[in-house]
Every structure is written in structure tokens, then in C-alpha cells.
Write a structure and sequence with these properties.
CATH topology of the largest domain: Rossmann fold
Helix content: 25-40%
CATH architecture of the largest domain: 3-Layer(aba) Sandwich
Bound molecules: flavin mononucleotide, iron/sulfur cluster
Shape: globular
CATH class of the largest domain: Alpha Beta
Distance between the termini: 16 Å
Order of helices and strands: EHEHEEHEEHEHHHEHEEHEH
CATH superfamily of the largest domain: Flavodoxin domain
Radius of gyration: 18 Å
Strand content: 15-25%
Structural class: alpha/beta
């Protein structure tokens, strides 16, 4: 019995969760989706196959959608997914199921895990939400959940409990909107599909031209030109926020758009403390399954 965990991660939460899960499962390979997604055919080899990825605006990232679509899962006797998210309800499992249905399959188990969010620098009040205490608390909750999740996966049990968001502690500004959000979440899926290409990045005066953003960019969209990063308009963004959150000088900002005011210039940054920019960038390098 072998397990393959396919992952995608911009700010390190999903990669960290995938690594922690790997430690708990025997004979398990961690495989980045990104390095394989451009292959015409991708054939999984594991008898147990898992997907670990972030939730973006109600659904799954486009790159994950494309990957799952392409993946041949005939070897799998068991399929599972873990989504990491900032706290709102996710439609990602239903959407993954829709793709798998075309292959005559569905997820046998799925789990949403709340983590500190790498999209928070956009939002007002970052400092009161992304605190050291919250990071530690969510980390220990996540590890506790993995201790039970891995047993379900090992026993190949069915566990399909619909996600209803992280009811524990939504940010106070969200509370009045929660009932409405629950109602409209399924309707947000088409909007979620657009979100990744909707951000305008720029670097401010703090930029030293170190080039880390170019290295970490999961879409290879950032090119250093005259010593400074330029986000290429012709290349589609994954919206992963790796550039925003790994820039060591917090020099990368997002321009406000009509529907979303950006507070990146006033806020700090978040990436998972155990995950390095090198590990994020390494997702681009794997191009075959062992
Ligand atoms: C473009 C984008 C959109 C996001 N949308 C949501 C959202 O609607 N609800 C939520 O709870 N978290 C949202 N998040 C937060 C991520 O789901 C969360 O930070 C996740 O753990 C990131 O995983 P990663 O570190 O592996 O990239 C969003 C993050 C990004 C970058
Ligand atoms: S990582 Fe930050 S400091 Fe380095 S080149 Fe990019 S924007 Fe400039
Ligand atoms: S530009 Fe930034 S958000 Fe877009 S793919 Fe590159 S690292 Fe991710």
C-alpha cells in the first residue's frame, strides 16, 4: 500500500500540512502538482492518493483544477483531499468531486483545516488577527486534527462531512455576514475562478532588487528588469501570494481595485514559519513521478 500526496502551496500552509501528514503515513511520496501540470498525461501510481491545496475564494485554485482533471487515478483504491483555508466555507471538495465524477470516482474523505491566511495582508486589521498566539493555536489544532485524519486515511474510511467554515472564531467584521455568506457560497464559485488573475502587484521603494520574488513566483510571471521585479501582463498569475509574503522587505504591494481595497502597505506579511521560499520555489522543478 503506497500513498501519493499531490500538493500546491503559495504561502507554505498546504506544504507544511502535507509534510506533517507524510510523517504520519508509511510509504508516502510528496509530489508538487506544479511541476507536472503542463505534462499532457499524468499517471498516478499510489494506491492511496491525496490532494493538499489552499482554498481560494470559495473554491480550488485553477492550477489544482487543471491538475486533477489531467491526473489518471486508476491506480487509486482510496482518494482524499485536505484544503487549508483562512476560515470561510469551501466548495473545493464538491468541485473536486465534479472533476472526479468524469473519471467515475469521488473523494472518499475530505478535510478543511483553518490556518493563518496569506491573503490577510490585503485586509484592514491584519495585526490583530495574525498574532503569534493565533499562529501557535492554529498549528496545534492542525496537528491534533492530523492525528485523527491520518488514522481515517490509513483505515481507508469514508469521511465526507460537508465543510461549514471555521465556526470557532471568525473575525468580528465577518460575523454579521456569515449567514448570508453560507447562503451565497455556492454561487461564488464562478467568481472564485476569476480571483487569481485579479491582483495588480508592484514593488515600493524598499525593494533592493534581491530577486527572491522572481525565484519564488509559481507562475514565473516575475522578471527582473533593470534590477527590479516586473510582473508580466502576458503571463497568468496563480494568485498564490508567494511573492507578496516572502519578500524579505515587505516591499511588494497590491493596488486597490474597485471591489477590494488593499491594505498591504499598512500590514505585515504571513508565510508558514517552517516553510522556506526555496521549498516553495522547488515545486516548479519536479517533472515526473518516481
Ligand atoms: C487568492 C487567495 C484567495 C483566498 N481566499 C480565501 C477565502 O475565500 N476564504 C478563506 O478562508 N481563505 C482564503 N484564502 C486563504 C488561503 O486559503 C489560506 O491562507 C491557505 O492556507 C493558503 O495555503 P498555502 O499557504 O498553502 O498557499 C485565500 C488566499 C489567497 C491567496
Ligand atoms: S523580493 Fe522584495 S526586495 Fe527582493 S526583488 Fe522582490 S520586491 Fe525587491
Ligand atoms: S506573481 Fe505572485 S501571486 Fe502571482 S503567481 Fe507569481 S508569486 Fe504567485
Amino acid at each position: 500500500m503506497s500513498t501519493e500526496i499531490y500538493y500546491f502551496s503559495g504561502t507554505g500552509n498546504s506544504l507544511h500540512v502535507a509534510k506533517e501528514l507524510q510523517k504520519r503515513l508509511p510509504d508516502t511520496d510528496l509530489i508538487p502538482m506544479l511541476g507536472l501540470v503542463d505534462n499532457e498525461i499524468i499517471i498516478a501510481k499510489g494506491t492511496s492518493i491525496g490532494f493538499v491545496f489552499p482554498h481560494y475564494a470559495s473554491t480550488l485554485p485553477k492550477i489544482v483544477r487543471t491538475f486533477v482533471n489531467k491526473l489518471n487515478v486508476e491506480s487509486a483504491e482510496y482518494l482524499f483531499a485536505i484544503v487549508t483555508r483562512g476560515g470561510t466555507e469551501t466548495m473545493a471538495f464538491l468541485e473536486t468531486d465534479k472533476i472526479l465524477k468524469g473519471k467515475g470516482r469521488r473523494l472518499d474523505s475530505f478535510y478543511a483545516i483553518t490556518m493563518p491566511s496569506g491573503s490577510e495582508p490585503l485586509v484592514k486589521g491584519y495585526a490583530t488577527r495574525i498574532t503569534k498566539e493565533r499562529i501557535l493555536r492554529l498549528e496545534s489544532k492542525m496537528l491534533e486534527r492530523l492525528d485523527s485524519i491520518h488514522k481515517t486515511i490509513l483505515a481507508r474510511e469514508i469521511s465526507r462531512i460537508r465543510d461549514t467554515g471555521d465556526g470557532n472564531r471568525p473575525p468580528s467584521y465577518m460575523v454579521p455576514f456569515l449567514p448570508l455568506l453560507r447562503l451565497i457560497t455556492p454561487l461564488l464559485v464562478p467568481l472564485g475562478k476569476l480571483v487569481e488573475s485579479s491582483f495588480d502587484f508592484y514593488h515600493d521603494k524598499k525593494c533592493t532588487g534581491c530577486g527572491l520574488c522572481e525565484e519564488v513566483c509559481l507562475a514565473d510571471r516575475i522578471r527582473m528588469e533593470d534590477r527590479f521585479p516586473v510582473w508580466q501582463d502576458t503571463i497568468k498569475c496563480h494568485g498564490c501570494f508567494a511573492c507578496l509574503n516572502f519578500c524579505p522587505l515587505e516591499s511588494i504591494q497590491i493596488k486597490s481595485k474597485f471591489y477590494l481595497k488593499s491594505y498591504t502597505s499598512q500590514n505585515g506579511r504571513y508565510h508558514h514559519p517552517n516553510i522556506t521560499a526555496k521549498e516553495i520555489a522547488a515545486q516548479k522543478k519536479v517533472s515526473s513521478i518516481k
